[in-house]
Design a protein that fits this description.
The chain is of the alpha/beta class and about 700 residues long. It contains 29 helices and 19 strands. The chain has an 8-stranded mixed β-sheet, sandwiched between helices. Strands 1-2-3-4-6-9 form a 6-stranded mixed β-sheet, with helices on both faces. It binds 3-hydroxybutanoyl-coenzyme A and 1,4-dihydronicotinamide adenine dinucleotide. Keywords: Fatty acid metabolism, Isomerase, Lipid degradation, Lipid metabolism, Lyase, Multifunctional enzyme, NAD, Oxidoreductase, Peroxisome.
């Protein structure tokens, strides 16, 4: 007897309630429970129709992802869905929350599907490196048509209940919150109206439509191949849908199963599943007591309406939180507000925002020049230019006007948050909230806890981050925090590799082939070469022994070639076109540089480019872990996937390093450190220790 699925009765309706918090994942006990309770309902002469629904906040969020990679435990979900479809009594799925993956597959095994308006449905398996494996690839095309099904399954994007109704995935959408009432009422209507059974597997009309266009699958394959660069499972999805068109249901299901097992065994699946859990783990701050309750945040203020401040203000307005935007001068304020409006207008033009919603969001942004207007804010985020003196001045003023208990955060990308906190009389309320550019788009939020940041402040900035749709990760105070500190290592290698003989294009190609959306130098051109140049200058001035010697990229910056914003950087750009093109002038600058430095250019193999760029980052990641700046390797992975385009299917830099094998990385770093006489490439103590013990980063546990 399984506890996770209960059979309840309401007149002639048998209600199967799946109760496996928090998201009713379809683990073994749920699968068995569905079979057992369904058999019980079939055997009960009082029950004429069955409703399946989820207890708690949602229907079913899919297969239990924690079971992947372990020996399969019967019954298989596919068999459960087939059994539901073959049930002797009609079955209705009543959906609230999310019917994702295996959850939607269960629903598609039912005769009818009713949902409440706020529900979402989807087959997001592709985001985990797999494909629907319980009949989804065979049944969705029968309901929604081949084209829509391929699109849904290869992007993994969920559909709202209304969209799903239009697509034919759902039969009815109703307003309301009582899912049990909705399901029972629908089932009673089916009985009263004497509706016929409607097994999805028997439907053929939508497949017939697709068969009339024989080129459709090939076209879809090409689109998917282009869109899902390097990914394995999207193409397997197309193969499975092709089977739905050409084979009877049973054979199609068999083919799907074989493709599913193939996807399950790929390194991409391992990487993506790691990324899924790492992100959720990162949401739980290591060492933070569960008693630390978030403070209420109803009103926000942002100081500085420049590149970052404007985007940050939008993040809050987008979710309905009023935000006061403070500038030092009227002209800067006007400019900032105009940029925000332009951003919204462009979203409206693309059809992704209603004009009325734009007005609502603009109405939530309250521009001001007066600190007095910040007195009501529960959270203030400072985003003025990067100067310790200026930031301390702002925090000193904030200390005077902010209400007691208000959280004072800085968006600094490099400065010491402890020192900034020292400008106030309430360092316990001060933290970092490091957004990434463009702040209204980028998912990553590096939250920074300084030495005195209060536990409830830490809890609040994580909760607020989630509320505005970010992926928040808590880090400690150090130069560049986690992401930029590791990036600086990669930048340094990339610059050196070019000095030694590689071309910038070759370095970028290795990184894009690896799966980054952009190479190192194309990214510098986008962010502005001047940013890194100023940082390197500062570090040299400060006498940092680890500062990189002046280099060819600095020379480029000295010539005013800052990247896309000045029409050219490492690459040349045609007006209005962001495609990087190799520039002979830059090639010459590099050649001249090498000559002056007496560097005889050598052939640099792709393998060396990859190893030096990425192993240097992994090595820095190990130091960051050793120092406790990041609590877990998965936190670093989450940062790199969400903030720097590290391919999620490789799981993030630390997971990837484990897959490569730490002894291999240690050996390579030692080789480069010796051969090139670069002590900074020596493996860190933690990396050496783990390698010598035959362990990976995954063996590390977070400090409690
Ligand atoms: N299996 C196991 N655990 C799951 C899970 C799943 N399918 N989905 C969510 N969880 C866990 C999370 O790890 C988290 O655990 P934690 O509290 O211990 O960290 C908890 O449930 C809550 O999850 P979230 O923090 O993500 O909660 P949200 O409310 O933000 O989001 C959600 C809910 C939208 C359902 C989101 O969790 C989600 O997208 N889940 C994955 C959905 C998915 O990919 N389903 C397909 C699975 S593969 C499949 O079905 C194969 C089939 O075709 C055979
Ligand atoms: P910016 O120069 O575009 O904007 C700064 C704005 O602050 C300007 O509009 C300026 O008028 C205003 N300002 C200056 N002093 C002020 C004061 N005392 N009171 C009110 N407003 C004042 O700078 P940007 O790029 O937005 O950077 C802001 C902060 O964000 C910096 O700390 C930077 O390191 C950090 N950051 C920047 C990223 C980027 O990619 N640009 C990414 C992540 C963090």
């Amino acid at each position: 007897m399984s506890e996770m699925v209960k059979l309840e009765r309401s007149g002639k309706v048998g209600v199967l309630v799946v109760d496996n918090p928090p998201v009713n994942a379809l683990g073994q006990a749920v699968r068995q429970g569905l079979l057992d309770r369904l058999a019980e309902a079939e055997a009960d002469p009082e029950i004429a129709i069955v409703v399946i629904l989820g207890a708690g906040r949602t229907f079913m969020a899919g297969a239990d992802i924690r079971e992947f990679g372990k020996p399969p435990m019967p019954p298989a979900l596919g068999d459960v869905v087939d059994r539901i479809e073959a049930s002797r009594k009609p079955v209705v799925a009543a959906i609230h929350g999310t019917a994702f993956g295996g959850g939607l597959e269960v629903a598609m095994g039912c005769d009818y599907r009713v949902a409440i308006a706020s529900a979402k449905v989807g087959l997001p398996e592709v985001t985990l490196g797999i494909l629907p494996g319980a009949g989804g690839t065979q049944r969705l095309p029968r309901l929604a048509g081949v084209e829509a099904a391929i699109d849904m399954m290869t992007t993994g994007a969920p559909k709202s209940a209304r969209e799903a109704l239009e697509l034919g995935i759902l039969d009815e959408v109703v307003e309301g919150a009582d899912i049990r009432g909705v399901g029972v009422a629908f089932a009673e209507r089916v009985l009263a109206e004497g509706r016929q059974r409607r097994r999805t597997g028997d439907l053929d009309e939508r497949l017939q439509e697709a068969r009339r266009d024989p080129g459709m699958i090939e076209k879809a394959r090409q689109v998917v191949e282009k869109r899902s660069r390097n990914l394995v499972s999207p193409l397997l999805i197309v193969d499975a849908v092709e089977a739905a068109l050409s084979l009877p249901l049973r054979e199609g299901l068999k083919k799907e199963r074989a493709l599913f097992v193939r996807a399950l065994e790929t390194p991409q699946r391992r990487g993506l599943v790691h990324a899924f859990f790492a992100q959720r783990e990162a949401a739980k701050v290591a060492g933070l007591s569960p008693d630390a309750r978030p403070r209420d945040v109803g009103e926000v203020a942002v100081i500085g309406a420049g590149t970052m401040g404007g985007g940050i203000a939008m993040c809050f307005a987008n979710v309905g939180i009023p935000v006061t935007l403070l500038e030092s001068e009227q002209s800067a304020l006007d400019r900032g507000v105009a940029t925000i409006r332009r951003n919204y207008e462009s979203t409206v033009k693309k059809g992704r925002l209603q004009s009325a919603d734009m007005d609502k969001r603009m109405g939530l942004i309250r521009p001001t020049l007066s600190y007095d207007d910040l007195a009501q804010a529960d959270l203030v985020i400072e985003a003025i230019f990067e100067s310790m003196e200026a930031k301390k001045d702002v925090f000193g003023r904030l200390d005077k006007v902010a209400k007691p208990g208000a959280i004072l955060a800085t968006n600094t990308s490099t400065l010491d948050v402890n020192e900034i906190a020292s400008a106030t009389t309430r360092p316990q309320d001060v933290a970092g909230m490091h957004f990434f550019s463009p702040a209204n788009v980028m998912k990553l939020l590096e939250n920074v806890r300084a030495s005195q940041t209060a536990p409830d402040v830490q809890a609040t900035i994580m909760e607020v981050g989630k509320r505005i749709g970010k992926v928040p990760v808590m880090v400690g105070v150090c130069y560049g925090f986690v992401g930029n500190r590791m990036l600086h290592r990669r930048t340094r290698e990339a610059i050196d590799l070019v000095e030694e003989g590689a071309s910038p294009e070759a370095v970028d190609a290795v990184l894009t082939d690896f799966g980054f959306p952009m190479g190192q130098f194309a990214m510098s051109d986008l962010a502005g070469i001047d940013v890194g140049w100023r940082i390197r200058q500062e570090r040299r001035k400060a006498g940092d022994p680890d500062a990189q010697a002046p280099n060819w990229l600095d020379r480029l910056a000295e010539q005013g070639r800052f990247g896309q914003k000045t029409g050219g950087g490492v690459y040349a750009y045609e007006p209005g076109d962001r495609t990087p093109r190799p520039d002979p002038a830059v090639a010459k600058l590099i050649e001249d540089w090498r000559r002056e430095k007496n560097v005889a250019p050598r052939i640099v193999e792709e393998q060396e480019i990859l190893e030096r760029c990425l192993y240097a980052m992994v090595n820095e990641g190990a130091k960051i872990l050793d120092e406790g700046i990041a609590a877990r390797p998965g936190d670093i992975d989450t940062i790199w996937i969400n903030g720097y385009g590290f391919p999620a299917y490789r799981g993030g830099p630390m997971f990837w390093a484990d897959e490569v094998g730490l002894p291999i990385i240690v050996e390579a770093l030692e080789k480069y450190a010796a051969k090139l006489d670069r002590p900074h490439l020596q493996p860190s103590p933690l990396l050496r220790r783990l390698a010598s013990e035959g362990k990976g980063f995954a063996s590390l546990t977070a400090p409690s």
